[in-house]
């Protein structure tokens, strides 16, 4: 009868673990997304400057700018977070808090832009506004509650 002690141990240096493989794939995916994202910014930047220069300032334009340009530090921070190994607990918490805050703001602004466009499509109808506000509240309240509960998790040792 064979026991665990009698079995031949696997050579860890020759056999990559599933975790190592997953981390490498995640790192390649993260860098790929970053490259595609920077490329998209590079090819649309001149059109964006024209748009910003020629249109009047409004709250929707400010929401668009926050959504568009907060993504830059969010993606960069996310990339550095995933590519750095051996972070301390405090460093991980700082990365996590920024990613949670910035990601929430980006989602909030994107959702708000969609709702403003929907309101405009319905020709600023009061009934449409009421439905939009109820739906937005139904979206926002659970999102804030989840973010607050998730972000306040106890990570003490």
TrEMBL record:
Name the Pfam families on file.
DUF6533
Out of the domains of life, which is the source? Eukaryota
- Which species expresses this protein natively? Paxillus involutus ATCC 200175
Keyword Transmembrane assigned: yes
Coiled-coil parts of chain: none
> Keyword set for this entry?
Membrane, Transmembrane, Transmembrane helix
Boundaries of every DUF6533 domain copy: 30-72
Q: Which residues cross the membrane?
A: 62-82, 94-116, 128-150
Q: Tell me the protein's name.
A: DUF6533 domain-containing protein
Question: Does the UniProt entry include the keyword Membrane?
Answer: yes
């Amino acid at each position: 009868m064979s026991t665990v002690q009698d079995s031949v141990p696997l050579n860890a240096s020759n056999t990559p673990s599933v975790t190592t493989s997953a981390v490498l794939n995640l790192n390649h995916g993260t860098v790929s997304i970053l490259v595609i994202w920077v490329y998209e910014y590079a090819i649309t930047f001149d059109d964006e400057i024209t748009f910003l220069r020629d249109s009047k300032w409004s709250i929707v334009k400010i929401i668009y700018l926050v959504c568009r340009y907060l993504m830059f530090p969010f993606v960069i921070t996310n990339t550095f977070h995933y590519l750095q190994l051996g972070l301390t607990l405090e460093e991980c918490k700082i990365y996590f808090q920024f990613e949670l805050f910035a990601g929430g703001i980006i989602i909030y602004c994107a959702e708000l832009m969609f709702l403003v466009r929907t309101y405009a499509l319905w020709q600023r109808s009061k009934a449409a506004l009421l439905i939009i506000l109820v739906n937005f509240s139904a979206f926002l309240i659970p999102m804030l509650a989840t973010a607050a509960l998730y972000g306040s998790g106890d990570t003490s040792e």
